[in-house]
Design goal:
Blueprint lengths: L21 E7 L2 E8 L3 E6 L13 H5 L3 E6 L16 H15 L4 E6 L1 H12 L4 E7 L13 H4 L10 H12 L2 H6 L1 H13 L4 H13 L13 E6 L7 H10 L4 E5 L6 H4 L1 H12 L1
Parallel strand pairs: 3-4, 3-5, 5-6, 6-7, 7-8
Antiparallel strand pairs: 1-2, 2-4
Helix pairs in contact: 2-3, 5-7
């Protein structure tokens, strides 16, 4: 999550992140959205989560996926280099944004990998726009509703702003629920590199809170059995932000869905365990 109430500024790409084949801002509905395209092959959309933007996928997973697929990264409304209106937002709206971006880019159908809130957007896409979704990967997410398992209050507090902290220190603080502590202790350089990626294009507090409201209100739990896309549910066994019962329910209810665990990984497993993430993704997507 990245959270700071300052205007957007142009920042240098963090080390290890290559320049895209193409990138820019395009009009989608009532906003302009930022996107990047990397590589060639079958289209693969990566949909980022709460408060995040395209750089939050890190410097390994998108780059290596681009060796096999045409990887499309983009910033949701309210984040990164896309417009950051005051809201309110809804997950249905962000799914519509995503399909609108596909239309602009001339992409009829794509594999979709959504992480955390991005998984909610991916679920909504698979229900509302089934012809646009090829294979579906749902990472560390929930379908919401009455069956949703919330983290305990001491974990939920990490979703909310800390005005007493600087932007950097806020992100460092939230690391406690993004990674297991032993990973933080063993890889402080990776944690810091991810923070710097966050800070490159921060979102405003107002936009972040609009996303958080959409995240909190999301509910497609009773419609999971309508999804027909081949589905992989991907989780870290140490995820405390979105507890594992949420993913287990999704995998149980979506017809034919598979579930894979990354042992010892926390919520943002694509940063802490990129090679395991890549192996599962490429095996499933083909």
């Amino acid at each position: 999550m990245d959270l700071i109430d300052v205007p957007l500024v142009k920042a240098a790409l963090p080390a290890g992140i290559r320049e895209p084949n193409s990138a820019g801002r395009v009009p989608v509905g009532d906003i302009e959205m930022y996107y990047e395209i990397h590589g060639q092959g079958e289209p693969l959309l990566l949909i980022m989560g709460l408060g995040g933007h395209s750089l939050d996928w890190g410097w390994i997973v998108p780059q290596k996926l681009a060796d096999w697929y045409e990887v499309i990264l983009f910033d949701n409304r309210g984040a990164g280099r896309s417009d950051q209106p005051a809201g309110p937002f809804a997950i249905e709206q962000m799914a519509r944004d995503t399909v609108g971006l596909m239309d602009i880019l001339g992409i009829d159908r794509a594999h979709v990998f959504g992480g955390s809130m991005g998984g909610m957007i991916a679920l909504q896409m698979a229900m509302e726009y089934p012809k646009r979704v090829d294979k579906l990967v749902l990472g560390a997410t929930t379908a919401g509703g009455k069956s949703r398992t919330f983290p305990p209050p001491e974990i939920q507090k990490y979703f909310y702003p800390r005005p007493d902290l600087s932007a950097h220190d806020y992100l460092l603080w939230t690391g406690a629920v993004c990674y297991p502590q032993e990973f933080i202790d063993a890889h402080p350089d990776t944690v810091e590199k991810k923070i710097q990626a966050n800070l490159a294009y921060p979102c405003t507090i107002v936009a972040y809170m609009a996303q958080l409201e959409a995240f909190t209100k999301f509910d497609v739990d009773q419609r999971l059995n309508t999804i027909r896309a081949p589905t992989m549910v991907l989780i870290g066994t140490r995820d405390v932000l979105i507890p594992l019962p949420n993913s287990i329910r999704i995998a149980h209810v979506i017809p034919g869905a598979q579930i894979r665990e990354i042992e010892g990984a926390g919520h943002i497993f694509w940063i802490s365990h990129p090679e395991e993430t890549l192996s599962i993704l490429t095996d499933f997507l083909g």
